[in-house]
Amino acid sequence: MTFADILAILPQQLVFGITLGTAYGLIAIGYTMVYGVLFMINFAHGDVFMIGAYVGWALLGMLFASHVVPMHPMIVLPLLLVGAMVMTGAIGLLLERLAYRPLYQRGATRLGPLISAVGASIFLQNAVMLIAGAREKVYMTYSVFPRTWRFAVAGINVSVLVIVIASIALLMMLGLHWLVQRTWLGRSIRAVAEDREMAAVMGIDVWRVVALTFCIGSALGGAAGVLIGFYYTQINFYMGYAAGLKAFTAAVLGGIGNVRGAMLGGLILGIVESLAVTFINPAFKDVIAFVVLILVLMFRPGGILGEALPDWKRV
Amino acid sequence: MRKIAAIAAVLAAAWVLAVPVCAQDTIKIAAGAPLTGPLAKQGQEVANAVKLAVEEWNAKGGVLGKKIAVLEADDQGNPQVGVAAAEKVAADPAVMGSVWGITSVTCIPASEVLDRSNIVLITPGCTNPKVTDRGLKNVDRVCARDDFQAPAGAVWLIQDLKKKKIAVFDDGTTGPRGGADEFEKKAKALGATVLRYVIRAGDKDFRPILGTIPKDADAIYASIWAPDAALIVKQLPDVGLTVPVMGPDGQFEPVDYIQASGGAAEGNYVSFLVPDVKKVPAAQAFAKAFEAKYGPVSSYGPLAYEATNILLTAVQKVGKPDREAIRDAVRATKGYQGALGVSVTFNAKGDVDTQNIYIYQVKGPDFIQVKSLNLGS
């Protein structure tokens, strides 16, 4: 490929990278929020994302079969997103209540909940496999977003789907940012992240805040599941592993515990991946993504925007 | 203790001796295939086709003056289960041969077990070259080999469709990578330009890779499995490419390819090992009989039927229930005129000397045969 060829396809690759990046960012928020309040990596988060994709798929199938509502994105997408977010939010609450809180309340060290998270991840994957079957499930993306809904700007193919995905993901991230910075709940979350004991002394119900953090992070992961489901058009019960790993990387890249960092990390990772495919053998795209992570951490150990953690919590 | 051992020995001896006595009035043919699990539909078709052939022979009085029975062996498409099933088959002295398998991973170990008991194995659907390349005397294959499918694809795209610049995809695993290599070799020999791309099986977003295909490429050969191929054809419009996509038999999947693509696979090509029975005049009797009993023919049934008939013809020719002689008689099959309208001759390795590959095109929810290619082996 000549330089001119590469230059010609670059804008197109950027569009793909940004779409994927916003979705990575949305999943990464779940990791980062939980890490912020509990100082723990919730390895089951990727599987919560996967369940979101499955709930969306099931709802889409039901809507399609029932003919109650027209298959228009303005109607279908909110229904799917709300359904998936309610379900994954509930699963987030359950995970916190059953898999993590009992350990913390019995004075677990950092390792216990981590193992518990890995176990929860395996449990969720297998539960979905047993309920829905091992076969790949297909999102009927083109019955909601017709194939003709696309346009070309200066040689770049852009579909309505891509715009919708990126804008929903961005809106959700902005909403979360507002919630964390401007509301009472957000202030409690920040207080718990800062110093759990002191927050409790100040009258904050710490475990309620932790549970809500899990719930919000999981719901955003579930929403990302629906969006990615539409974008990938095929989902399976083990998709949470790869996506979770990428999103976790994005969270670390941006600065773990830092909500804005997660968004930025996701975007950078998505773009780096699609550019890696352009310039180098596609088989190496993950290698490139992790090389970038290592380089960033070498020069900025706290991630690009830095960890939003109080000093005593830094590793 | 010694007494118990003695009784056990006597019982064991009685059992061993008793089995041949019971077995004398029937001859058994083993039908090995995944009868349960995700490949059950294709596997059941193999078993049903074997049963149909056996019923027809029994109606004519069986073979060697005995009735024929079918011994079903479920390999679940899993090598360990396949070995256990093959051991069960080998332990039955009435078994005179087997029609086995649609997955090479089970065919290969099962054939090694059966080889120790000199039981012949004719496969209607195991396409890996290794199945017959191991020099086993007991393995014969009525379908084409993998290494002929990709070249057939190249012939179709370049000679028939006049394509000149072809993007070739594989997923980096042994089988698909081998297919892509064979395709490249043949395509270059036919004068086309080949560009190679590797995807990772299980990835869902191929848009960035598809975006690097030059806009003047006029076809894609996708040496990958059906779910990945469905994704590629769906995502092609996102990068502004409208070219035909062709793939090997792994994409001969109405659900995982055509349905999963949501209409995007329309007009694409897939090579397959079995002809469309509707297109073969000689196969009409088989197609009707099969459909009346087991429903429409959709995959390996015709070849399993053919294999069973070749096996029973060999048994008849040998004239006695001698596994070794039957094994050699199957290998010696020459110019056998079967139900599919092509003559079957096995070469020294056990492969058919004319490798028949059938090109299908996606039309609506079905695959329609558009060409049959015969390549000498």
Describe the protein in words:
The complex is a heterodimer of chains A (315) and B (377). With 315 residues, chain A is mainly alpha-helical. Chain A has a single domain (3-313), classed as ABC transporter involved in vitamin B12 uptake, BtuC (Orthogonal Bundle). Helix content of chain A is 75%, strand content 4%. Chain A contains twelve helices and four strands, in the order H-H-H-H-E-H-E-E-H-H-H-H-E-H-H-H. Chain A has helices at 3-38, 45-66, 73-105, 111-132, 141-144, 160-182, 184-194, 196-201, 206-232, 239-254, 259-279, 285-299; strands at residues 137-138, 150-153, 156-159, 234-235. In chain A, the strands form two sheets. In chain A, strands 1-4 form a two-stranded antiparallel ribbon. Chain A has a two-stranded antiparallel ribbon with strand order 2-3. The longest helix of chain A has 36 residues, at 3-38. Chain A is globular. By secondary structure, chain B is of the alpha/beta class. Chain B has two domains: 2-144 and 278-346, Response regulator (Rossmann fold); 147-272 and 359-376, Response regulator (Rossmann fold). Chain B has 13 helices and 14 strands. Chain B has helices spanning 2-23, 40-59, 79-90, 104-116, 130-133, 146-160, 174-189, 207-210, 226-235, 254-259, 284-294, 301-318, 323-331; strands at 26-33, 67-74, 95-100, 121-123, 139-141, 165-170, 193-198, 219-223, 245-247, 269-272, 336-337, 343-344, 354-363, 366-376. The N and C termini of chain B lie far apart (61 Å). The chains are: A mainly alpha (315), B alpha/beta (377). Chains A and B meet through helix 1, helix 5, helix 9, strand 4 and helix 11 of A and helix 8 and helix 9 of B.
